[in-house]
Design brief:
This protein is of the alpha+beta class and about 1500 residues long. The chain contains 51 helices and 55 strands.
Length: about 1500
């Protein structure tokens, strides 16, 4: 039998009766030695027999009592038993067998064995539960004695030494056949020197030997048993104590050496050294005392102090007498031989310096006692001393106290320095003693180790220069340096992961503290670099099953403070502030600017906080305040871009309108001219005359017409101001060797402008009569269309940043910091800016207030609305020890919290950061036009160049062609010039007709119309990006609460547990509704709402003595419900009178409430108002109030809980009378929406922060087969990213703040309009109506819009594909030539056709629910839970059903098809729809179509 100890964390205990209940219930269980439950620490420590019980069984037993129980540590600790030998008196009333059985009935006794002579009993017991004195008294009427071990010759006379150094050895002895064998072994081994006692058991085939390791070794004992003819082996290998012969001799003759000699040796302090050992395996104070008493008895050891907390032993010893190795082995040999002893560093020399300087410098008084243990020094802060008489009275009283060696009290420093013996007293006792004298006392620092004579030592250090401070002190100081590192932790899903990491790492050596931030996925660890390295810390976290990497140079920006300092007048003020701050401990850097009144301070947040820094400056006489940080997200609001494009558009538009007017006028005139020219009715001279007679063609200078001059003037500003940005972008694109829309636009406008300008100059130089054709109209038109599109795009993008502004506004701006006295008494409170809250501050949060920082509750009970983070509507109970989140809202109780994460580390700041990152990292979709122009631009430029050279060559080969088709050919110009000018004109026409104007319009116009149509249909789409993106979506991820479900709980079912004649149903509803009317809990609100609806009344009765126990339920008294019932009964009766066909029901109607007798609805005088005592709550609440829940009720509750509902019990006057099932209901259209999305070929996923049961239940109702439950906001982002990394485009549908990072990260974020502002701002698409069918509509609209955009591109390209060859003159031989004005016309026509095509989108109708419903009716069916894979967190490894062999699948398919024949019967029974049938639990993979297929 082996005793083990396990610690179980127990939540839900409210008072001492809970503690007693658990202790009684568990204590009665088989195999339990002892149980101790602590209400404060919320834990139970159980010592049990590992053969009869398991930790899990114990945890479940506590859980079944209605408490939340979790194993604090999965590995139970072995409890080491002690053994004592009892002498049984010869004349006892009871036989030795009866004595044994009586002893075994007692707690803590593990085993009792009798010696062969029946005179001695060996009792194995657990020292934590019982002790020798209690065991003696366990058998009434029998006088038992503890038999003292005989003192061996040569052993130490000192009993503490002999017992402390004795070791218990267990040997397995084989070959024993009868009791004479046991007697032989006992007789032979018992005579050996150093063996104190031996007990051999024939049944267990083992021998238990108590021996002294410095007199005999375990090997020797084993050898002696084997010599007697038996086979012996160690049950547990003992650590050999290898002592040399000299050491043994020295140890054996301990008592012969007089104390004088020892003194002489020890007084020679030059020979004394100090070593620090690290000891693993100590469990309690008894281990400490065991080691101290054993080792301090060694003559070579002058003192030893063992610390359980630090797992260390500091030993002062004489190296001439004993070596470090022997000391180490001596400690390892101490009973129960389980200690692991090592030097803290690999280098043994670290702590082995002589502890004291030479005796010349510090003469030492001789020691009183060589074996005197090390003393410790405690410094205690003492408040309330007024004069020296106080000092003397404290010193007088305390010096009399046992264990106090010396005391020195300082009135000036308000503290007392006490040197004491840690074996006799502790700092806490000393502090309490001073408090009892009427002073306030508190411990200032951890007790320090002191050598037996601190005075001499302190003196020696005072006299020495700093360079000569003893190396030991340096070594000590070094180990105190604490470093800090940050570890990025992945894979955490909830608070229990955080607790798991924190708990396990705190146990590791060298780790001082650890703080894990769940949302940031970051752990801050303070560690001792001499013991452990950051990489080892990360490895420890990885071993727990999380991903961990050490973050380089992180957290350096922690302590930066920007302050405004008022009241500085000159440079000396600046110097004063800077020098004072730099002297302040913890301030690393300080810079004060007189001109701006600003101070920039860097500080170490571990040492000093922002409030302390401000206080330092205030103490110097200056006023100071924080520089107010801009809490808005101005860097994301696109204001600059919006301004820029708006300006560009307005400039282009202003100059474009007149240019367009001129162009249209000229087109009309040119067409008339060309007609006349075509019919040859006019000579060239007449044409010239006509030309010059037109107003616009009037030449201001030879070759410069009014038209061209105006066009030039209008074009220049557009080219410079309107096109400025395009030039920059085009330059950047060309620099990176890419060609986009900007390049083509710049190319077309620049060439058109330059060509037109050059041709004008040429015409003016030639003094041409006919004005040349210019292209000054091209740039303005192009720029107008393009800049309009860009402007609208940026306006839409700017909307997204409002999400951040909203999120940031959730953060509380101020915090109430309180100062607590002893016993958590409020001493003071002050309001400070939230940025001044330091880690570790105690912050008070009143009901209705926001939590300013993340923290841990230290006092108070309350419900907290955390929907901000989790998205779940239910408030969460908070009690001491629970964590709270910044930005969540405290509901009904005042709480004191200790700040754990402040500033940028709070959860809310992390969500802001997630949204920011998602928005900034979301790359704009490469416009199709950009992609196209990537190929289009080079092609057009190439065609243009080819055209140029082709016509130059053709012109020189066959000049007639050029002459024939070149308008305005003038004989005065040379042929070469004509050819070049014609070639240029053709190539420019190519560039012009291929102008990307229509390409540029194809997308924005369709997007503008699409978004307009969406808005009419209640779908707000923010810009073209989401509209284009939605059609590519492959996965739609739904949030649960508020998206698939309504987000508010409703009563689903009320089950009455008593007969109607005992308590009428209406009466029960009235009582329960009234009781819950005072509750603010959503469940209570749902119950009240339901009762009011059922009773058809707006008012209910009166509720008094209302009490809430968070997480359990309510209790109250209800009165005045008679009027309500009477009114209801009367209405029923009136209806009965009206409905003659109905049979009148009179059994329940009291005679005195007969409608015939009463005119008013007043209460009859005969009815006296009754008072009902009501309890409403969960199982635990009922059992706590002494109500027994029947099995069928429990079963009904379990059934509801499996469906994801909350089951609440109601009791009236101590009788359970109702079970109310409450759940968040699914929206009616959700199932159809999911089905339609699936039929559109999309994968649908449910992702929720709620538990897996509820998630599975909701998923089965709407037909979703893939579920991720218990997911955090940051993991929603990670999941979306994961799906995107698989190459899928993701749409996320959500409504809460917790969804906003995921909405921003998804390719398309769709927010429900009834959701939070933040979600709406972060999303790309907002559904104004709370209708999930609009999700279908938005994707459908996107598909239609993209289709329209593609048609637009076709229109745009047709003109280019046909127009470019014509412009290039390919069709010249057949007489088809394109004049430049025709090029412009074609360009305009393409733009108009594109716009008209886009306008056709206005005809869009969104898919009607009726049609979809009709189509879906035949195929929609609920999923059985076995078809749904639920994943906890974001792991893909969900709780899927097992894969089956082919044979099993065939059998199951055939069963499924048989089942489908009975599907009508199945649909009648609603349970089958929601609960899996037996075989469906085995099949994971048949989907809805499989039934019909077979």
């Amino acid at each position: 039998m082996e005793a083990k100890s396990i610690v179980i964390s127990v939540e839900g205990m409210t008072c001492n009766s809970c503690v007693q209940t658990i202790e009684e219930h568990i204590g009665k269980m088989n195999g339990i030695h002892n149980i101790k439950v602590s209400l404060e620490e919320k834990k139970a420590v159980v010592i049990y027999d590992s053969k009869l019980q398991t930790p899990t069984a114990l945890q479940e037993a506590i859980y079944d009592m209605g408490f939340d129980a979790t194993l604090a540590d999965s590995n139970p600790q072995p409890v080491l038993p002690d053994t004592i030998f009892l002498t049984i008196p010869t004349q006892s009333a009871l036989t030795s067998k009866q004595i044994c059985s009586t002893l075994l009935k007692n707690r803590g006794i593990m085993d009792v064995k009798l010696s062969s002579d029946q005179k001695t009993a060996v009792v194995t017991f657990i020292s934590a539960i019982t002790n020798g004195k209690q065991i003696i008294q366990m058998v009434p009427g029998v006088d038992l004695n503890i038999s003292a071990p005989e003192i061996m010759p040569g052993a130490s006379e000192d009993p503490s030494w002999s017992q402390a150094s004795s070791v218990v050895l267990r040997l397995k002895v084989e070959g024993m056949t009868c009791h004479s064998c046991t007697s032989t072994i006992e007789g032979k081994i018992g005579k050996l020197q150093g063996v104190q006692r031996i007990k051999v058991s024939l049944d267990n085939q083992e021998a238990v030997v108590v021996y002294q390791p410095h007199l005999i070794t375990a090997e020797e004992i084993k050898h002696q048993i084997e010599a007697a003819g038996f086979t012996a082996s160690f049950r547990k290998q003992p650590r050999p104590l290898k002592l040399s012969a000299i050491d043994l001799e020295r140890l054996r003759n301990t008592q012969t050496k007089g104390s004088e000699t020892a003194l002489k040796e020890n007084c020679n302090m030059n020979d004394t050294k100090t070593v620090v050992f690290r000891i693993d395996g100590m469990h309690c104070r008894s281990c400490v005392l065991n080691i101290q008493s054993t080792i301090s008895a060694l003559p070579s050891v002058t003192s030893i102090v063992v610390s359980l907390e630090k797992k260390s032993a500091v030993i002062n010893y004489n190296p001439n007498l004993i070596s470090i190795d022997v000391l180490r082995k001596a400690i390892e040999a101490v009973s129960p031989e389980t200690f692991k002893v090592s030097l803290p560093d690999e280098h043994e020399n670290v702590a082995l310096f002589p502890t004291l300087t030479s005796p010349l410098k510090s003469p030492q008084p001789p020691l009183k006692d060589a074996g005197q243990p090390l003393t410790q020094v405690a410094v205690i802060n003492i408040e309330g001393m007024t004069c020296n008489s106080c000092v003397q009275s404290i010193e007088g009283v305390m010096s009399q106290k046992a264990g106090v060696r010396s005391i020195c009290v300082s009135l000036a420093n308000r503290n007392g320095t006490i040197e004491y013996d840690p074996l006799q007293t502790s700092p806490e006792d000393l502090r309490a003693s001073i408090e009892e004298m009427g002073f306030d006392a508190s411990l200032s620092a951890k007790a320090k180790l002191a050598q037996p004579s601190p005075e001499g030592q302190l003196e020696s250090h005072k006299n020495e220069p700093p360079s000569k401070v003893s190396p030991t002190h340096l070594a000590r100081r070094e180990t105190k340096t604490i470093s800090k590192c940050y570890v990025q932790v992945t894979g955490m899903t909830c608070a229990s992961c955080v607790a798991n990491i924190e708990r396990n790492l705190r146990r590791e050596d060298g780790i001082h503290s650890i703080l894990v931030a769940l949302m940031a996925g970051k752990a801050e660890v303070r560690y001792n670099p001499a013991v452990i390295h950051p990489s080892a810390i990360a490895e420890l976290i990885r071993e727990l099953g999380f991903g961990a990497t050490v973050m380089e140079n992180c957290g350096e920006g922690d302590g930066i403070l920007e302050l405004v300092v008022r009241g500085m007048t000159c440079a000396s003020c600046v110097h004063k502030i800077e020098s004072t701050l730099m002297k302040t401990n913890g301030v690393l850097y300080c810079s004060v600017a007189l001109a701006t009144n600003k101070a920039h301070i860097k500080y170490d947040p571990e040492v000093i906080g922002p409030r302390d820094v401000i206080q330092v400056i205030k103490d110097l006489g200056f006023t100071t305040s924080l520089v107010k940080k801009d809490r808005s997200a101005s860097h994301l609001d696109h204001k600059q871009e919006i301004r820029q494009w708006k300006r560009s558009f307005v400039v282009s538009l202003v100059f474009c309108i007149p240019v367009m007017g001129l162009m249209i006028y000229m087109m009309v005139m040119d067409s008339q001219l060309s007609d006349a020219h075509a019919h040859h009715n006019m000579s060239s001279e007449e044409m010239e005359a006509l030309h010059s007679s037109m107003v616009l063609e009037y030449q201001l200078l030879p070759g410069l017409s009014v038209m061209n001059f105006l066009s030039f003037l209008l074009c220049v500003p557009v080219q410079i101001f309107g096109g400025w940005h395009f030039y920059i972008q085009a330059y950047k694109a060309v620099k990176h060797k890419t060609a986009n829309m900007d390049v083509l636009i710049v190319l077309a406008t620049s060439i058109a402008f330059v060509y037109s300008f050059v041709i004008l100059l040429v015409a003016m130089a030639e003094k041409a009569k006919v004005n040349p054709v210019t292209f000054f109209d091209t740039p303005p038109m192009l720029f107008v269309f393009i800049s309009l599109g860009r402007w609208l795009e940026h306006v839409a993008k700017g909307k997204t940043s409002e999400a951040l502004a909203r999120l940031i506004s959730l953060q509380a701006t101020e915090a109430t910091i309180v100062t607590l006295g002893p016993g958590n008494i409020l001493l003071s409170e002050e309001q400070v800016d939230v940025e001044l809250v330091q880690r570790g501050d105690v912050v008070k949060v009143v009901p209705g207030g926001k939590f300013p920082v993340d923290g841990r509750v230290i006092e108070g009970h309350s419900m907290v609305d955390e929907s901000l983070i989790t998205g779940e509507a239910m408030p969460v109970t908070k009690k001491p020890g629970n964590t709270v989140i910044a930005g969540s809202i405290n509901q009904n109780g005042s709480l004191l919290i200790s700040a754990t994460h402040v500033g940028a580390d709070t959860t809310l700041s992390q969500i802001v950061k997630l949204v920011e990152e998602a928005q900034t990292s979301k790359a704009p979709i490469q416009q199709f036009a950009d992609k196209l122009s990537g190929y289009f631009v080079p092609c057009i430029v190439a065609v243009s160049v080819v055209t140029l050279f082709a016509w130059i060559i053709i012109g020189f080969v066959d000049f007639e062609i050029v002459e024939k088709y070149f308008m305005g050919y003038n004989k005065s110009i040379s042929a070469a010039e004509v050819i070049i000018r014609f070639a240029f004109q053709a190539s420019i026409t190519v560039l012009c007709i291929a102008c990307p104007c229509s390409l540029g319009l194809a997308t924005p116009t369709a997007v503008m119309v699409g978004t307009g149509v969406g808005a009419q249909n209640g779908i707000l789409i923010k810009g073209g990006e989401p509209l284009e993106m939605a059609h590519k979506v492959k996965v739609v991820v739904f949030d649960k609460t508020g998206t698939i479900t309504h987000g508010t709980p409703e009563v689903m079912q009320v089950k009455f547990l008593v007969e109607g004649n005992q308590l009428p149903h209406n009466k029960m509803l009235a009582i329960v509704g009234t009781a819950e009317s005072n509750s603010e809990h959503p469940l209570g609100v749902a119950i009240t709402k339901y009762c009011k609806r059922e009773l058809d009344s707006e008012t209910l009765g009166t509720c008094t003595d209302f009490q809430v126990v968070p997480g359990c339920g309510i209790s109250c008294k209800v009165t005045n419900i008679e009027a309500l019932l009477y009114k209801k009964n009367r209405m029923v009766e009136e209806n009965n009178v009206k409905n003659v066909t109905l049979v009148r029901i009179e059994e329940n109607t009291d005679e005195s409430v007969e409608p015939a007798l009463i005119i008013d609805a007043e209460l009859p005088t005969t009815v006296t108002p009754q008072k009902y005592s009501v309890l409403i709550g969960n199982r635990e609440w009922m059992s706590r109030n002494g109500l027994i829940i029947k099995n069928e009720v429990d079963k009904a509750m379990m059934e509801h809980e499996q469906r994801g509902r909350t089951a609440v019990l109601a009791a009236v006057d101590g009788v359970l009378c109702g079970l109310i099932a409450i759940a968040d209901t699914v929206k009616p259209e959700a199932e159809l929406a999911v089905y339609t999305l699936k039929s559109m070929g999309l994968e649908v996923v449910l992702m929720t922060g709620d538990n897996s049961k509820t998630a599975r239940s909701i998923a089965s109702q709407v037909g979703i087969t893939k579920v991720f439950a218990e997911v955090l906001p940051s993991h929603k982002v990670a999941k979306v990213k994961q799906l995107q990394d698989e190459g899928k485009r993701v749409a996320m549908v959500g409504d809460g703040i917790n969804d906003s990072p995921a909405l921003a990260m998804a390719n398309v974020g769709i927010a429900i309009g009834t959701g939070t502002d933040v979600a709406i701002e972060a999303a790309d698409v907002v559904l104004i109506k709370d209708d999930l069918m609009d999700v279908v509509a938005s994707i459908d609209l996107s598909r239609k819009t993209v289709k329209r955009i593609r048609i637009n591109f076709v229109f745009a390209l047709i003109y280019n594909l046909i127009g470019v060859p014509i412009a290039a003159g390919v069709f010249l031989p057949i007489g088809l030539v394109l004049q430049p004005w025709m090029g412009s016309a074609a360009m305009a026509a393409s733009s108009v056709s594109v716009v008209l095509s886009s306008l056709l989108l206005k005809m869009y109708q969104k898919p009607s629910s009726e049609k979809l419903e009709f189509r879906a009716r035949s195929q929609v069916r609920h999923k059985s839970p076995s078809e749904i894979s639920v994943h906890i967190g974001i792991d893909e490894t969900g709780t899927d059903s097992p894969k089956l062999s082919l044979m099993d699948q065939i059998i199951n398919y055939s069963r499924a098809s048989i089942n489908s024949l009975f599907s009508d019967k199945r649909s009648v029974n609603s349970i089958v729809l929601n609960e899996p049938d037996k075989h469906s639990l085995l099949v994971g993979d048949f989907r809805e179509d499989d039934d019909t297929a077979l």
